[in-house]
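Example for tutorial group B:
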């Protein structure tokens, strides 16, 4: 957690991005340049960075080799590289040196870190473009547009924000409409602040990783370690990304960066996952046996567990998948078809027909209306420590290893039209009235009692159009008496295709430790941060759930029987 206050042509992302990037924002090969030379130019940002080293990684080994074009950024953060037109869209890598000056402060940054952008993107290189590149590298086979969507989801950016634009510019470029410019300004200041926090975090993580390797990251691992560190940065910055200001610069002197727990063996384990991670077919895996997932645990320490099995073939819709839901209780007992449900589904979170889309390399599970798109990568298992795959905090024995026969896959799932919503039915509570209107009357500002979520007290306020659409929440800490908290939360009403109602609760990152025993304490979903959801099961019953919005991504681990049984025996209660 972070707390703070074509040989002859170069890929152009979009006209809007290039215009917002400023002069020299994309590569080119025209003008007075000799016909045998291409010119690559752009700007390097946290704020504009002066004195950073920029090189073209022609042999794609991640390090600066003799003979590769290299330059230094000027006072405006701009760079220009020239190379033979026979070299096609090479990666361009930025090494930010301790002596590099950040225009935001006029001071040297003080620490080393690296930045990149996806191959073919040269107009702007900054922490955000570095995140997109890292997400692609740690998830083999992922498309750039998919990585962009994942980063947008993490950082709470709109789908229309020009993610490759120069967020520091303050004057509207020619050719950009006033409407587009206003929409850009509504987010660019916040993105600038996110980038500043991310840059400081990347520098800190690089220093920690270097120490883990005895003072210097091995040259043959630099590129891969870079992607691991930037991915970790993305996940660290995400919880507060929606709360940083859009006006003014955040004060980095108050930035507290938690230790990500990097050790050489943990990083190397992640690198092995990236290397071994070959595409796998969900259809084939399910055909070989049951597939287990454990998305979250409830406040009582019971783990929600569901399993998918082969339901037979269907000539029209493809392979059928059947699901069962269970809860792993603290005595390790389970009851089939007991508790875990998805809104609108009768059995489990994922069920329906399953087919492989050869045009995208994805498995599609579900209905034509609400399809989940999966990309799977097989992970190394036999002899690997469980903590290399699973958060060590969940394990009774951190040094336990996966047994022979264990198979584990990392699933990157794009959520379907109704979102991904799961809950533990048996933890439901009873009350009078219907959601959502009764929330304001029962747990509103003037009510006798508030709604309790862990050690967080929640009081519901109506929105501008009445409680039917949602509104804000005022929050109190209940850990030591009742303490009013300054930041507001949010609640929003949602309905699925069946017309069932649920309310999502958004809690500021600063207060999430107060609900650590609730749904934020997740086992396998460590990608797009889900919201807590209050779900109406009947006219008098509601429960807490777990929700990932439509179009966002969830990252789930899939385990076969051998891996699941080993993990279950090692879970910490």
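The residue assignment follows.
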């Amino acid at each position: 957690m972070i707390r703070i206050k074509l040989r002859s042509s170069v890929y152009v992302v979009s006209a809007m991005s290039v215009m917002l990037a400023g002069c020299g924002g994309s590569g080119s090969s025209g003008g007075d340049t000799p016909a045998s030379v291409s010119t690559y130019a752009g700007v390097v940002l946290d704020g504009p960075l002066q004195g950073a080293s920029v090189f073209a990684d022609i042999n794609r080994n991640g390090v600066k080799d003799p003979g590769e074009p290299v330059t230094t950024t000027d006072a405006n953060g701009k760079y220009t590289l020239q190379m033979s037109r026979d070299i096609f869209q090479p990666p361009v890598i930025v090494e930010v040196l301790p002596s590099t000056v950040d225009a935001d402060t006029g001071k040297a940054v003080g620490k080393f870190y690296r930045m990149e952008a996806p191959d073919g993107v040269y107009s702007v290189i900054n922490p955000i473009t570095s995140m997109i590149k890292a997400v692609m590298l740690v998830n083999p086979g992922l498309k750039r547009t998919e990585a962009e969507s994942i980063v947008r989801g993490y950082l709470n950016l709109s789908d229309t924000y020009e993610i490759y634009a120069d967020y520091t510019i303050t004057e509207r470029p020619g050719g950009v409409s006033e409407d587009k410019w206003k929409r850009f300004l509504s987010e660019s200041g916040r993105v600038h602040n996110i980038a500043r926090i991310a840059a400081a975090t990347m520098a800190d993580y690089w220093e920690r990783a270097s120490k883990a390797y005895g003072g210097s990251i091995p040259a043959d691992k630099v590129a891969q370690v870079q992607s691991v560190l930037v991915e970790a940065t993305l996940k660290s910055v995400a919880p507060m990304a929606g709360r940083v200001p859009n006006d003014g610069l955040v004060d980095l002197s108050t930035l507290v960066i938690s230790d990500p727990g990097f050790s050489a063996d943990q990083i190397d384990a992640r690198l092995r996952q990236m290397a071994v991670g070959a595409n796998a077919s969900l259809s084939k895996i399910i055909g070989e046996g049951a597939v287990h997932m454990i998305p979250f645990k409830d406040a009582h320490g019971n783990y929600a567990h569901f399993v998918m099995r082969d339901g037979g073939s269907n000539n029209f819709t493809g392979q059928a998948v059947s699901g069962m839901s269970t809860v792993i209780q603290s005595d390790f007992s389970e009851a089939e078809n007991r508790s875990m449900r998805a809104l609108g589904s009768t059995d489990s979170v994922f069920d329906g027909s399953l087919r492989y889309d050869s045009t995208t390399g994805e498995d599609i599970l579900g209905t034509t209306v609400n399809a989940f798109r999966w990309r799977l990568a097989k992970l190394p298992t036999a002899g690997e420590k469980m903590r290399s795959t699973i958060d060590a905090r969940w394990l009774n024995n951190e040094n336990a290893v996966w047994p022979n026969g264990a198979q584990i896959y990392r699933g990157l799932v794009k959520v379907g039209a109704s979102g991904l919503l799961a809950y533990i039915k048996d933890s439901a509570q009873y009350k009078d009235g219907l959601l959502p209107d009764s929330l304001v009357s029962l747990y509103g500002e003037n009510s006798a009692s508030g709604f309790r979520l862990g050690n967080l007290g929640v009081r519901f306020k109506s929105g501008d159009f009445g409680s039917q659409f949602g509104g804000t929440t005022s929050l109190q800490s209940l850990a030591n008496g009742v303490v009013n908290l300054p930041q507001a939360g949010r609640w929003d009403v949602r309905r699925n295709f069946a017309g069932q109602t649920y309310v999502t609760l958004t809690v500021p990152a600063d207060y999430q430790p107060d609900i650590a025993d609730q749904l934020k304490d997740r086992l396998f979903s460590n990608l797009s941060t889900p919201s807590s959801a209050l779900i109406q099961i009947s006219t008098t019953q509601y429960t807490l759930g777990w929700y990932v919005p439509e179009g966002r991504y969830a990252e789930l681990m899939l385990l076969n029987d051998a891996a699941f049984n080993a993990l279950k025996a090692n879970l910490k209660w």
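Confidence is low (pLDDT under 50) at residues 1-15, 22-32, 336-340, 342-347. Compare this with the pattern of hydrophobic and polar residues in the output above.
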